[in-house]
Amino acid sequence: MAASISPAGAPAPAALSAGASPDTAPQPLTPDQLTATSTIATATAPAEPLLSPPGAPQSAAAGVTAAAVWQSTKKVLSLWTNNADRNGYAYIDGIGWKRLATPSDSVHEALLMLASSGRLAGSVTYPEPGDGLIHEIYLW
C-alpha cells in the first residue's frame, strides 16, 4: 500500500488499535480523489413525464400550432412535477401532457394550484398559444 501524503497542518493519523487492519482504518484522500469528489455535475434538461395516467390513452407529442386555440371544459386527469425548478405538467384529457408556463416561480406555482383545483372540480378551460405551454387557466 502506497503511503499517502497529508496536507500541511493536518493531524497525524491515529495509530491503529490492536486488531484493526490497515484496510479498514480511515485514510486521508489523495489529490486525485479530492478532485474526483469535488467536480461539479452539469445540469441536465428538465425531465418530462413519460407515462399517461391509468385509463388514459398514450398520446403522441403534440406539434406547435401557429394560433391560440381554446380548450374548453377539459378534464385534468393527472399532474406531474419533479425537483427541478418550474417543471410541472398537467395531463389534459384528449390532449396529453401539457407543460405549465415558466416565467416565474409564483406564476408556475399558481398555475399548478389552479390545475390541481381543476382536477378536483372536474374541468378547466385554457387558451393554447403557439408555444404549447399553458399560460392561463379558467376554472369555475
Walk me through the structure:
Mean pLDDT is 77; it is low at 61-65. This protein is 18% helix and 19% strand. The chain has 140 residues and is an alpha+beta fold. The strands form two sheets. A three-stranded antiparallel sheet has the order 2-3-4, covered by helices on one side. The chain has a two-stranded antiparallel sheet with strand order 1-5. A hairpin with a 6-residue loop joins strand 2 (76-81) and strand 3 (88-92). It contains two helices and five strands; from the N terminus they run H-E-E-E-E-H-E. It is elongated, with a radius of gyration of 26 Å.
In short:
With 140 residues, this protein is of the alpha+beta class.
Give me some keywords for this one.
single chain, alpha+beta, 140 residues, 19% strand, elongated, three-stranded antiparallel beta sheet, two-stranded antiparallel ribbon
Morphology: elongated
**Biggest sheet, in brief?**
3 strands, antiparallel
Q: What is the alpha-carbon Rg in Å?
A: 26 Å
Computed structural class: alpha+beta
Lateral strand order in the biggest sheet: 2-3-4
What do the pLDDT scores average to?
Answer: 77
Please bin the fraction of helical residues.
Answer: 10-25%
Instruction: Spell the H/E element sequence.
Output: HEEEEHE
Instruction: Report the β-strand fraction as a percent range.
Output: 15-25%
Distance between the amino and carboxyl termini:
72 Å
Find the count of extended strands (DSSP E, 2+ residues). Answer: 5
Count of helical segments? 2
Report the uncertain regions: 61-65
